[in-house]
Write a structure and sequence with these properties.
With 300 residues, the protein is α+β, with helices and mostly antiparallel strands. The chain has two domains: 175 residues, Probable tRNA modification gtpase trme, domain 1 (Gyrase A, domain 2); 82 residues, Elongation Factor Tu (Ef-tu), domain 3. Helices cover 19% and strands 31% of the residues. It is built from seven helices and 16 strands. A six-stranded antiparallel sheet has the order 12-13-14-11-16-15. Strands 8-9-7-1-10 form a five-stranded mixed sheet. A five-stranded antiparallel sheet has the order 3-4-5-2-6, with helices on one face. The chain starts with a strand and ends in a 12-residue tail after the last strand.
Length: 300
């Protein structure tokens, strides 16, 4: 297996006896399902149901204390902590960044391979299979000094770019692929990636999320794309507008070589696929595709 450090991620502890009920009333997934070696993927939304933060929620081992660990976007983790503290009130929780810890990921060298059991037992700390997709591998929150143990266990160290290419090969979104206070969870694949529970109790933004699902209001989706035809071998930058027949069709969100992720209007996706037309991002042509984990029942 390969492993890499993910410096764009950081860890936040939500510790104390009320950690689970505190988060349960705020986030999109069922935090009560968290257990040793089992995490959930979830989001914190605005009251209007728009995206604020996404993160993995894992159980804190006894040696780290009592509570939960959030694996979240490093650049915005202090803002996440600040927003959570607004809702603390009388809950018996402490919310603080886990300094001295790093986030890492491991995945099988062979596409579709497993190796999760080997990875889970490789090092102390927090470890769990990626709850979005088993093929994505295993994630860790470990002490900086324990990183060498992964290499000692026989894992080959890879770059952050290698991991980015790995997750794009499966069409998996990253925090950077979603727009703060604009994105809607179901447009970003949260239901298919097990990031929202429609049976749990109320949480912030639940009403719009449920209405989007049951009224069939999803008109755009984050889709993986193959990029070709860029000038001088350079692909279009994230944020580049995508067009079809000169009309707006979406926006590129991530790109790594010929692989990318884009928010595309489903109407444009259908037309491009059926008529064999290219989606354009500047001078580059994009071909959108549907990964196996994604459900697009009216757009197969």
């Amino acid at each position: 297996m390969k492993f890499t450090l993910l410096p764009a991620r950081a860890a936040l502890s939500v510790a104390g006896p009320d950690a689970v009920p505190f988060l349960q009333g705020l986030v999109s997934n069922d935090v009560a399902q968290v257990a040793p070696g089992r995490a959930v993927y979830a989001a914190l939304l605005t009251a209007q149901g728009k995206f604020l933060f996404d993160f993995f929620v894992a159980q804190m081992p006894k040696e780290m204390g009592e509570g939960l660990v959030l694996d979240a976007e490093a650049a915005r983790i202090d803002d996440l902590a600040r927003r959570l503290k607004i809702f603390k009130l009388r809950s018996k929780v402490t919310i603080e960044r886990l300094d001295g810890y790093v986030v890492a990921a491991a995945w099988n060298n062979e596409r579709g391979g497993d190796g999760a059991e080997q990875a889970l037992n490789a090092v102390d700390g927090v470890s769990y299979p990626d709850p979005r997709l088993a093929a994505a591998g295993v994630r860790f929150v470990i002490r900086e000094g324990d990183v060498a143990k992964l290499a000692a266990a026989g894992f080959a160290q890879a770059s952050e770019a290698d991991y980015d290419a790995h997750r794009l090969s499966y069409g998996l979104p990253d925090s950077r692929d979603m727009e703060v206070e604009k994105s809607v969870l179901l447009e970003c694949g949260f239901e298919d990636l097990h990031g929202v529970d429609f049976q749990k109790g109320c949480y912030m933004g639940q009403e719009l999320t449920a209405r989007t699902k049951y009224r069939g209001l999803v008109k755009k989706r984050l889709l993986p794309v193959v990029i070709s035809g860029a000038s001088e071998g350079e692909g279009p930058a994230p944020g580049t507008r995508i067009t079809l027949d000169g009309k707006d069709a979406g926006e590129l969100r991530s790109a790594r070589g010929a692989a990318g992720l884009a928010l595309i209007r489903l109407e444009a996706y259908d037309k491009a696929r059926i008529e064999g037309l290219p989606l354009m991002a500047g001078e580059a042509a994009l071909a959108a595709w549907k990964p196996d984990w994604m459900s697009l029942p009216e757009h197969e």
